[in-house]
Design a protein that fits this description.
This protein is mostly helical and 128 residues long. It is 77% helix and 0% strand. 28% of the residues are buried.
Length: 128
């Protein structure tokens, strides 16, 4: 068993599940979307991105691209959340929550693509 592949797979799957956990629920209900889960999703996605830098294959490049898209979407979601809570006089409104959840939904799509690529790569691996 390759420990590097285990760690890589762990972070790819953890990134997707944390993102899904934040995303699930009514889109405009702030109490259903935990900010700590969003923070954890951002951190784990960034770790997964760093782990993807070493692969020089074509599928590795697509893995990195999906991870960068997820990072961009989640960082944008965190910025919108931070603005709504700490800067805006209106606070975390249903509209702001919908924007945050929509951005995390885009990241979730990128994470799902990454998981599908991981499964395809694993299934197509040939022992020598």
């Amino acid at each position: 068993m390759n420990l590097e592949k285990v760690v890589f797979g762990f972070f790819v799957l953890l990134a997707a599940t944390l993102n899904f956990g934040f995303f699930i629920g009514d889109i405009d209900a702030p109490h259903l979307h935990n900010p700590y889960e969003l923070f954890a999703a951002v951190v784990v996605n960034l770790i997964a991105t760093v782990l993807k830098f070493g692969d020089r294959t074509q599928i590795g490049a697509v893995h990195l691209a999906t991870s960068l898209v997820a990072d961009l979407q989640l960082i944008a979601a965190a910025l919108v959340f931070g603005y709504a809570v700490y800067v805006s006089t209106e606070g975390l409104t249903p509209a702001a929550t919908a924007s945050v959840v929509s951005l995390s939904g885009g990241a979730l799509v990128a994470n799902i693509v990454s998981v599908v690529l991981l499964v395809i790569e694993t299934v197509s691996f040939h022992r020598r």
